[in-house]
Specification:
Strand content: under 5%
Number of helices: 14
Number of strands: 0
Length: 349
Amino acid sequence: MPSPSSPGPSPTAAAAPARVDVRTLRTDLRHLLLDASVALAVTAAVFALLRHRIVEGTSQTLAVMPYLADADRYLLYWLCQAFGWSGLLWAWITVMLGLLRATAPGRWTVVSHARIERWHRVTSITTIGLMFAHALAFFLELLRENADGLGTAALLWSAFVDVFVPGGYDSGTGRVAILLGLIALYLAVPLGLSFYVRSWTGTRLWRVLHRFVIVVYALSVWHTLLYGTNVWFDGWFRTAVWALQLPVALLLLARLLAPLRREERLAVKDLRRPGPLLRLAGRVVTAAGVVVLLLVTVTGRDGGRTPGAEGGDMLVTQPMVWGALAVLLTVMGAVALAVRRDRSAAPAR
């Protein structure tokens, strides 16, 4: 036992928070069991439906890749597709929950914000797992197929580059579509799990960076519409995928117009400063997005390909995507530096 004169632990050291919120993480992992089980059940149902449509010859995929008509031979491909669709559904759910959590409550609120936040965290973890399973199934399919007759080591490396290295896939539409999907996956992991280290990063920095999750979701939808062979062509299903984005855009607009935190609300007198002006611009862009989604849903002009028609050149190329990613990461870095600077300057005020 230390003597009365011995120096004890400093108050700062004793009060230092843990870098990882292990308690919340453990609680979320317990709830994850049910959520992941439901997600796997949905994936199994989608897999069965996709396989049934192949066997019946009604899948749009057969118009793109007729050799996939052998449903049993390409089970891993259909598993990849199934994980992709369930992953997109869970991404939609978790984004909707996150936007609900960040919007000021009204009389319609029947579930507490704390519970919505927990659901949002748990579904985020499930979404990341489904995204990884989607990529892993594609990786295993490339190993099974071994189209180039490679040896084991060369085959493993080739499949790994095609599936997990951004820009590694160099065939057709996948050059852009898979790049978009990988960017979404690799951004989803740190942004989705950042909640558990917010005592280390600071709550404000976590909150600001976590908002970029909406970019991850947009990339996931883009990846699906660009490369999902089930929705390549014009038709009700592709239009339905577009229509599902309307609630997301409306909730995002509601979150911007009625933010939960008072300091994020806009007044006319605030528009003299850059920050409020940027928030106003975000609201205008989001409102324009709602209008576009309405027009797409009503008219059915959703960018799908016409069966039998020649496809045009890609409007977006890999260099464009890399350039946009560089801008995005620069903006995220600048925001992080600005928040940290304000945080370090706060005690001096």
